[in-house]
Amino acid sequence: MKGATIGISGITKSFGDFQALKGVSLDIRKGEFFSLLGPSGCGKTTLLRIIGGFEEPSSGRVEIDGEDILPLPPNMRHANTVFQNYALFPHLTVYENVAFPLRLKSIKRKSLDELVMYYLRLVELDGHAAKRPSMLSGGQKQRVAIARALINEPSVLLLDEPLSALDAKLRHHMLMELDQIHDKVGITFVYVTHDQSEALSVSDRIAVMDRGNVLQVGTPREIYESPSTTFVAQFIGETNIIDGTIESSGGRWFVVDAGGMGRVKVTDPRGYRVGDRVTLTVRPEKLRITPLGMAATEDSNSFVGTVDESVYSGFLSKYYVRLESGAVMRVFRQHGDQGEGEGLGWDDRVCVSWNPRDTFIVEGARG
Amino acid sequence: MSRKRRSASKAVFIGCMVFLFVPLAVLIFFSFNENKAPIFTQFSLVWYRKLFTESSSLWTAFFRSITIALAASATATVIGTLAAIGVHWHRFPLKTYVQAITYIPLVLPEIIIGMSLLAFFAGIRMPVFGHSLAIGIPMTLGWLTIFIAHATFCLPFAYMMVLARLDEFDSSIIEAARDLGATEVQTLLRVIIPVSKPGIISGFLTSLTLSLEDFTITYFVSGVSSTMPMVVYSQMYKGGVSPVINALSSIMILGTVVLAFLARRWLKYIAASS
Amino acid sequence: MSGPKRRRKRNYGTIYTLPLVVWFTLFFLVPLLIIVLFSFLAADIDGGVLPRFSIAAFTGLAKPRILKLFVNTIWVSLASTAITILMALPCAYFMARSKNKTMLLILVIIPFWTNFIIRIFAWKSILEANGVINSVLMGIGLVASPLQLEHNWAAVILINVYTYLTYAILPLFSTIEKFDFTLLEAAQDLGATKMQAITKVLLPNVRSGIVTAVFFTFIPLLGSFVVQQLIGTKDMYMLGNEINDNIYKYFDWPTAYALAVALMMLANVGLVFVMMSERKQARTLGARRVDEAAA
To answer: How far is the CA of B140 from the CAs of B123, C6, C47, C245, in angstroms?
Structure first.
């Protein structure tokens, strides 16, 4: 069995007065690399533990390939878990850790050895078979945990913040390796993380969670470029938030009256109408910064302001521009871009502009 | 920096070791004395000969002590290990009760445990709502009551030592075992018990130590059944201890020295969890 | 949604602890309650109790003789504990800083494996009139007639210290071993003398070990009776001796068990005292921290 669909419907979970999950529904596709992304305490780990069988939901239903799995104990589910702290058995060698699931069944010695070595090679640990977990580095421990979880040939692999204990460089490397392993074994991965860059770089789809709710499900591009709520926009990278009221529609765009800041053009109203109060977002790297006086094009949003602060950070520069309304806009400009903005610094008068297509309504209320 | 300080502590340590070992040396010394009185006259193995030829009742008492110590330690270790596993990894209604009741004996003088069991085993009958009920379980004092008493006072120690070991691990290795297909019993046998092995062994050794060392509790529950310490006590009480006791004690001391070196790996856990 | 199909997780916690709960309730808790029960009953003529309520056992305790036993019990236990801890602390410190910890630990534990009563017997053969010390002293002509070395307070306390020294060293060793000794260097770097570093940095940090060592020593000492009986005199008798005599000599069980109740209360007073000083310590530390924050 290669990969399985997971159907989650109406899952709630309370710990005493605390509601960890408030009715979560998700459909995870066969063979997908699916991430549950959110800040700590959002319920993502609880949801994973419910799928794995370590927590019982207060209500709701979880199906793997259409079969209700909630009545099954963890050992009867076709899902295996890679634990955050690896959870390797300290009394067993690397080889025996990986062989553990097979030793529980009566499997012929020869095929057991073949399987164990196959999975140790998959995670590039065949040279460390005789070592104890205590002798391994963090990254190696993580790989043992992955091999051990895969050897049962589950149709779903559950990964609970598997990289959080590793340092930044190793984390990136392991992430790429996870991606390759996913490609090789082809089963469904459910990956829990609080790190948006991890989730964006490897996932087929992402569910962004906050306070027990799923806020948005989509591909990394959808989540990043058209976030559905302010929270999603702010959690996935940095962004600019603008509040206003839809003033008019017509032609190629809608115009939002953003109070003292002025008027902002939007192309997609997302079902809101004139008079509705809305929140807009635009990513800092979509903004252009130019010295005052350079002509802004007619079909862009453009505002005049003063550079409050500019931060050089390697491949890009970050500018914080105070508009005349007092609002501060963040602008990221990648180095190597030709021309405009070069040499801008503190207290320079500038023009900030962007294409209305890059502005999204993330929240709103009927006016 | 603390060279001077440590030389002071070294002096105290050496002094304490002399203090601890001199009585044992005296015991051994007089076991080789020809004379009965504690005045050394001439080297002799007479007491060893007597020990091996005419001291069958002493040997009976000795083996009774050893058997009771082994049985009580094994019982305490099995029950204590299971309880530690239960308390560490599960939530259940009696948890607070278990935690409280295993703590109490540590803050009670031993004599209390001894005399409470004496009363319990007396099983005195009392009228309760018109029925005559035994208060406790009437049992003739003997090796069985000593065994029960020893297992009881060793239990909290065995339990706490396993618990201390389990505290070094979090529940995820159990979840991992279950996740990978192990049943509850397989998890117990293949993960939990191997992982707690150092705690289990040191719990057993501590129980053994306490059981061999104990006199006070044994005193109240032994009845006519004489264990080794009871024999020595009654001889001392009557005023004359046979040097055969010296000979047997010397053999025991030698045995414990050998045992201590064999078990040295585990001894450090005894200290670590006390 | 929890249909009938849903598997209720079996409560393994209860299953695992059941043997302990049964064993300990039966052989520890019930006997403990029997102590209290017996103390409120009338004495049977040849030991045991009669099913008749009586507080005679408690009223009978209000005698100067019993009061003296309380005084003896408390001061002998306190003195023995204090000396034991004072000896055990430097020992444990030295062991914890040694490179050969396991070896030293074995040394400390070995005497512990010889039965308590046999060790008392060994001490008796050292201290008695024709014992080791007197033989040596008379042999070299330092004294003409044997010194009276047993049957005095010093002998009783000496053997108490001997018995509980290991009990005190072990917990002290395990806490001092975990102590970060660079803190001592830091303290000295900041101007503390060696002694100040020890008393102001080391001791407060190994407090829990000291408390455990005090428990392991003081509490069993409260109920001791064998040493006084075999090495001391009747004047040195403690509550434990009175309990022993009431059970085996006077066959007055209610009095013995009333004394046991008193003894448990005494142990609890000690316990509460230690816990209160613990809390006071925490409070002064807390207050100091607030002061520092304010400054």
So the answer is: 10, 51, 15, 21
- Are A70 and C9 in contact (CB < 8 Å)? no
Tell how far CA A203 is from the center of its chain: 8
d(CA C39, CA B95): 31
Q: Are A328 and A320 in contact (CB under 8 A)?
A: yes
- Domain stops at, among A234, A259, A293: A234
Find which of C34, C124, C138, C212 to mutate to test the B interface (most B CBs within 10 Å of its CB): C34
Q: Which of A81, A84, A85 comes nearest B179 by C-beta?
A: A81
pLDDT truncated to tens, each residue of chain C (295 aa)? 333 334 445 577 888 999 999 999 999 999 999 999 999 999 888 888 888 899 988 998 999 999 999 999 999 999 999 999 999 999 999 999 888 888 898 889 888 888 899 999 999 889 888 788 888 888 888 888 888 888 899 999 999 999 999 999 999 998 998 888 888 888 877 877 778 888 888 888 888 889 889 988 999 999 999 999 989 888 899 999 999 999 999 999 999 999 999 999 988 887 777 777 666 655 554 444 444 444 3
Give chains near A: 3+ CB pairs under 8 A: B, C
Q: Please tell me the distance from the alpha carbon of residue C235 to that of residue C216, in angstroms, as a whole number.
A: 26
Q: Can you list the domains of chain C with their CATH numbers? A: 63-288 (1.10.3720.10)
Q: Which residues of A touch B192 (CB under 8 A)?
A: none
In contact, A89 and A45? CB cutoff 8 Å = no
SS3 C291: helix
**Total domains present in chain A:** 2
ipTM over 0.90: no
CB contact under 8 A, A73 and C7: yes
